[in-house]
Amino acid sequence: MKSHLDRRTFLKDASVLTASAALIASGASSVVRAGASDERRISAVLFDSRYSSSREFADALVGEGAVAFDARADIAALWYGPLREHVAKYGGRVAGLTTDSDFAVSKSFGREFQFSLSYEGSHDSRGSTAISHRLRGSQSVSQIELAPRHADSNWARALGQALARTRSEASPKQWQSSVAHTSQLGDHPGFLRSWLLAA
């Protein structure tokens, strides 16, 4: 009887090890497939803790159930460490309000994990006393456009909430764009990029 239980335990442990080895061998492409939850919700948000608008954007998405990751850390380490583990476990989309360079890096890493860009916005106050928001997405951006237009100084929080409600698709056939303007915040760095990656 004891040997039968030991054999069963051995076979169970062996199957777990085999599945784990297969997951590791399949590489980054397994990350998105592993998350069995709703792929249309935003489950992770990248932000830059130096800027209040970026923090407010993240706070809005955390309020909708996302987990926040500070892009001021090594962004490659995020994508290959805690962010990768989070997406593997929970699936979903990844959003951000970051510097342009962190956006470019995230878009590149996202491709490795089978993510495509479904929305991007530029938030530019260079040479101006206001912020110009140029928004483009894979569906009508009218709902997203209304967020900064009606919120003014709270534009980043409103934008995060609007993105949480969108159901855009990756790799769109046609993109739509819009422009809105808001007052400039004191710590706005001149240029930030908002974005949404979908599997």
Short summary of the structure?
The chain is an alpha/beta fold.
Cα-atom Rg, whole angstroms? Answer: 20 Å
Helix content: 40-55%
Strand content: 15-25%
The SSE string, one letter per element, is HHEHEHHEHEEHHEE
**Structure class:** alpha/beta
Total number of helical segments?
8
Mean pLDDT: 80
Largest sheet: 7 strands, mixed
Please tell me the total number of domains.
1
Core attributes:
single chain, 199 residues, alpha/beta, seven-stranded mixed sheet, 8 helices, 45% helix, disordered N terminus
Describe this structure in words.
Helix content is 45%, strand content 25%. The protein is an alpha/beta fold. The chain has one domain (35-198). A 7-stranded mixed sheet has the order 2-1-3-7-4-5-6, sandwiched between helices. Strand 4 (116-124) and strand 5 form a beta hairpin.
